[in-house]
Amino acid sequence: MRDEDLLRLLKKDPERGMDILINEYSSLLYAVVKAKFQNGEYYSSDIEDCVSDTFTKFYLELDRYRLSKGSVASYLCVMARNRAIDVARKRGVELAYMRREDETLFQIDDMLRIEEELISEEIISEIVSEISNLGYPDKEVIYRKFYLSQSSAQIAKALNISETNVNVRVHRVIKKLREKFGGKQ
Question: pLDDT for 105-156, tens place per residue?
């Protein structure tokens, strides 16, 4: 189903629209979230909770979503990834609390709070929009590298290009995004 049709359906018949949205994108979001939890200590329900929270947040913020900023799939992936990061941070703080002294916990908590304040959903939307405007294979390379957390070797094999080519493309896109958004060179 096209994104425009899905958005209309979500507004007209939310229950049916959500069923289609969930059926269409659950597997993708599970992969995105699972990739973020690969190396940590998490409960099996964390992945399901992140995916479920993503669909709920998308529906509740449906009026804020702009198709011109990126596809529904890419928008959901960013939301799921951010939710997974939030859960990972929370888990990190919980583990830190069990393993370290209170002073260390407060330092970690302060760092996370500052980092969260710096991340703006508006900037993320702009970045997603820039990525969605990339041509093939740059768009596919970036999607696989940062949303699916695939290695350069995996991406190279999937796209039938060299690993060096993948790394160069990632470097160029990141450089372009840093220039556009004023990041460190």
Answer: 444 444 545 444 444 555 666 777 777 787 888 888 888 887 778 888 888 9
Closest CA to 81 of 129, 121, 132, 131: 121
Condensed to tens digits (0 to 9), the pLDDT of residues 26-73 reads: 888 888 888 777 666 666 678 888 889 999 999 988 888 888 778 888
How would you class 30 by CB atoms within 10 Å of its CB: exposed for 0-12, middle for 13-18, buried for 19 or more?
Answer: middle
Q: What is the pTM of this model?
A: 0.51
Terminal C-alpha separation, the chain: 40
Spatial contact of 34 and 43, defined as CB atoms under 8 Å apart: no
User: From residue 174, how far is each of 24, 144, 177 by CA, in Å?
Assistant: 29, 14, 5
Chain mean position to CA 67: 17
- Helix H or strand E encompassing 39: none
Q: CB of 80 within 8 A of CB of 29?
A: yes
